[in-house]
Design goal:
single chain, 57 residues, mainly alpha, NADH dehydrogenase [ubiquinone] 1 beta subcomplex subunit 1, NDUB1
């Protein structure tokens, strides 16, 4: 039985996929936020010359 087009098949597929995409979005936002701290750690960063690629993507 479908209520507003929502069937059990949709729930078994849609709910886990929605969770996956929300988690991926949050992970991408965290990675984007952390890119501002690349090579600035006194412990891991060291000295990076201008024009050199960052030590991690």
């Amino acid at each position: 039985m479908a209520i507003f087009g929502i069937t059990p098949r949709f729930i078994w597929f849609g709910v886990p996929m929605t969770g996956f995409f929300i988690g991926k979005f949050l992970d991408d936002q965290e990675t984007l936020r952390m890119t501002s701290f690349r090579d600035k750690s006194a412990l891991f960063g060291g000295r990076v010359k201008e024009g050199d690629p960052p030590t991690w993507p």
